[in-house]
Structures are given as structure tokens and as C-alpha cells.
Write a structure and sequence with these properties.
The protein has 316 residues and is an alpha/beta fold. The chain contains twelve helices and eleven strands. Strands 3-6-8-7 form a four-stranded mixed sheet, covered by helices on one side.
């Protein structure tokens, strides 16, 4: 959605999850569609791939990122095989970035974009970032790293994402500048006044919520008072006069004073999803929480087109 809104033609996709693949085809069309893991895609002989996929303007990649999340037991699972969802095959999630760079070597796109969570820039993951940079340089790409916050990009959500953006060195392009300072959109602007409760709180969360104090930023602080544990630290409180916190796939954001979670309309607006989007029965919380917000990619890809791709086109 982000790329299409920025006037790109999306010509192909590779997706390991059959359910996510069906949702994509239902809402956005097909093009060349590969239902497989990137490990299988990179091993397809070049002569069996359409010529359209080589030397493309831009190749985008956003692998599952839980092993680098700030809300996960990262170090214990980083290099272990894991089923990310029940419909998927086992993968070593930490290897996916390197598999993706093998695809970059295979297809040789002019520009490369790869997104991940902000945790990739913290703790021991910093060594992993250095390894990614080294691999880009081996492939003769000039790479930059950006940490962007959706709240500065007109997204009604405080969502941070890391973007690796690179171009083939032969183009000798200037450094990409991504400076977004949009006025923040507060939760009160997207609040659904109909008070719909699409996903009612389970009893335990509701019980813990009663122990919450006004100054608590999340239910974890309340749970410490309730049972001496911090089980709900990803369950943030939402205030109308602030930008909504990050929508996460495996937890909930609670609307202050109303004792309810964000409903579907609020989640779609916070995630920059159209209200007529067909989730095909998948929990919208999961899908929106797992995605890079389309508005963020729209703004990033628009700058890439203006600052880099238009210059490359003028030289060709």
C-alpha cells in the first residue's frame, strides 16, 4: 500500500505464510507471487525466474523480527530454529536478513530497503548490524541506517522502525536525507466515539487494570502491585492528549478511563490501514502489529524516488 500510494508498480511478492499471502492478493493484487520462504526463493535457478525481477528499481524486505524485539527473550532464541506462526515452516529468524542479502546478490536491484524493529540497534544486536553492513559492502552497495518514528511522519502511533536503505555504488548518489517533522496526531483525533468493544479484555487483564494508577505507563506496573510480577509490561495505557503507543501483535493497548482495548477502527487508523481492508478473518491486531505501517513506507519510498531513483533514471 505504501509503495503503490507513492506511484511505484509492485511487480512481485515472496511470502512464506499462506494466510498472509491470501490477504495480500485479496487487497492488493498479485503480480509474480511466490508462496515460499526466502531460503527457497534464493535457490531458484536464475533462468527459471522472469527477467522482470532482475535489475529492478527497488527490492523491499521486512523479515519477522521477534528475536530482536525489545519485548522478547532475544538472546535465548536468536540463532535457533522457530515456527513463527502455525502455518509456517521452521526458520532461523536471525538468518533471514542474510538470506535476503543473498537475494540482493541474485537480483541486483538498484535500491534496497530492509526494515526491522528498533531493538536491532540495541544490546548485542549491534554486532549483527555490523555484519549486515559488511555484507552490503561486499555486494558493492552503499548503505545507510535510519531509525524512524511514525509519530513524526503523520502516523497516529509512536512506532519506531529501523530502515537499511542502500543503492548500488556505481550510481554515485548523494546521501539520502530522511527528515520528518510532521505535527503529531493525538489519539483523541482517531478515537472511535461509538465505544465499540471488538476485543473485550480477558478477566486477568481487567483485574490487573483495576490496580493501575494514573501515572502508570503500562499494566506491568499495576501487575507488580497485584501479584508481584510484571506480566503485562507491553500493555500500554492510551491517553487522548498523546500519540497512541505502538500497536503490538501479541498484546493490547488500553484506553484510559474506559477500561477497554483499542477497537478495530482505532487500530486501522493508528496503523494507516484503510477502513475497508479485508483481513479475511485474521485478527486485525495481529496483522497491523506485524506490519510496517503503509504511511511510513509511503513517506520513505517517496523520498527514495525523488532523491535517488529519479536521478538514476535521468542518467540512463
Amino acid at each position: 500500500m505504501g509503495y503503490k500510494n507513492a506511484w511505484y508498480e509492485v511487480i512481485g511478492t515472496c511470502e512464506i505464510d499462506p494466510q498472509m499471502d491470501e490477504i495480500y492478493k485479496r487487497n492488493l493484487g498479485t503480480g509474480y507471487n511466490y508462496l515460499m520462504g526466502v531460503q527457497d526463493f534464493k535457490n531458484i535457478p536464475n533462468e527459471e525466474l522472469p527477467s522482470d525481477l532482475f535489475d529492478i528499481d527497488l527490492l523491499d524486505w521486512s523479515p519477522p523480527c521477534s528475536t530482536f524485539s525489545t519485548a522478547w527473550q532475544r538472546e535465548k532464541v536468536r540463532w535457533k530454529e522457530k515456527v513463527f506462526r502455525e502455518w509456517q515452516a521452521k526458520q532461523i529468524l536471525s538468518d533471514l536478513f542474510l538470506d535476503y542479502l543473498d537475494v540482493v546478490e541474485k537480483l541486483r536491484p538498484k535500491v534496497v530497503v530492509a526494515e526491522n524493529v528498533s531493538g536491532l540497534m540495541k544490546w548485542n544486536a549491534k554486532g549483527y548490524v555490523k555484519m549486515i553492513f559488511q555484507r552490503f559492502r561486499e555486494l558493492w552497495y552503499e548503505v545507510q541506517l535510519f531509525l524512524l518514528n511514525g509519530a513524526t511522519m503523520w502516523l497516529p502511533q509512536r512506532r519506531e522502525r529501523v530502515f537499511f536503505i542502500a543503492h548500488r555504488k556505481e550510481f554515485n548518489l548523494p546521501k539520502l536525507k530522511l527528515e520528518f517533522n510532521e505535527k503529531p496526531i493525538l489519539f483523541g483525533k482517531i478515537k472511535d466515539r461509538s465505544w465499540r468493544k471488538d476485543y473485550p479484555l480477558v478477566w486477568k487483564r481487567l483485574k490487573v487494570a483495576k490496580y493501575a494508577k494514573y501515572w502508570d505507563r503500562d499494566l506491568g506496573e499495576a501487575d507488580i502491585r497485584y501479584e508481584g510480577k510484571e506480566n503485562f509490561f507491553t500493555h500500554s495505557r492510551i491517553y487522548e492528549n498523546e500519540v497512541a503507543p505502538t500497536v503490538l501483535a501479541n498484546s493490547c493497548n488500553l484506553v484510559r478511563w474506559e477500561n477497554r482495548q483499542m477497537n478495530v477502527i482505532e487500530m486501522q487508523l493508528a496503523g494507516s490501514y484503510p477502513l475497508d481492508y479485508d483481513f479475511k478473518g485474521v485478527n486485525p491486531w495481529y496483522l497491523i502489529g506485524m506490519s510496517v505501517p503503509p504511511l511510513m513506507l509511503y513517506k520513505v519510498s517517496k523520498e527514495i524516488k525523488t532523491q535517488w531513483l529519479d536521478k538514476i533514471k535521468a542518467l540512463s
